[in-house]
Amino acid sequence: MIKVIVLRDTGGKFKSIKVSGHAGFADYGKDIVCAGVSALIETCILGFENVAGFKPRVVKEEGYLSLEIPDNIPDDAREKAGIIAETILLGLKDMSESYPEYVQVKTKKEVL
């Protein structure tokens, strides 16, 4: 199962996302659930870099990806990043509803 954990700041805005696991929907190279999640996350990274204009903190390992918005970006970039992230999250939530045995999305709120 792919587990997606979204972290929001105290104001409810997107801060980071962690994706771990494997869908197990089909064999490697034929797993449409894994491909869909991967495409959404990679699109989020591209959006942050090419639309919002900043480089997110990204850690990629086998079966794991962490994506975080840095604290020191301008407000306009943060606003664009929020729109991009919320759009990507709509796609991930839709996938978790269509394939609940293979994708789980949870949201956590940052505590000060």
Quickly list its features.
112 residues, alpha+beta, 5-stranded mixed sheet, 2 helices, 28% strand
Major sheet description: 5 strands, mixed
Distance between the termini: 31 Å
Helix content: 40-55%
**Low-confidence runs:** none
Strand order of the largest sheet: 3-4-2-1-5
Beta-strand proportion: 25-35%
* Record field, number of beta strands: 5
Helix/strand order: EEHEEHE
Rg on CA atoms, Å: 14 Å
Mean pLDDT: 95
Structural class determined from secondary elements = alpha+beta
Shape: globular
Number of helices: 2
Describe what this molecule looks like in 3D.
This protein has 112 residues and is α+β, with helices and mostly antiparallel strands. It is 40% helix and 28% strand. The protein has helices at residues 32-52, 75-98; strands spanning 2-8, 14-20, 57-61, 64-68, 103-109. The chain has a 5-stranded mixed β-sheet, with helices on one face. It is globular, with a radius of gyration of 14 Å. The mean pLDDT is 95.
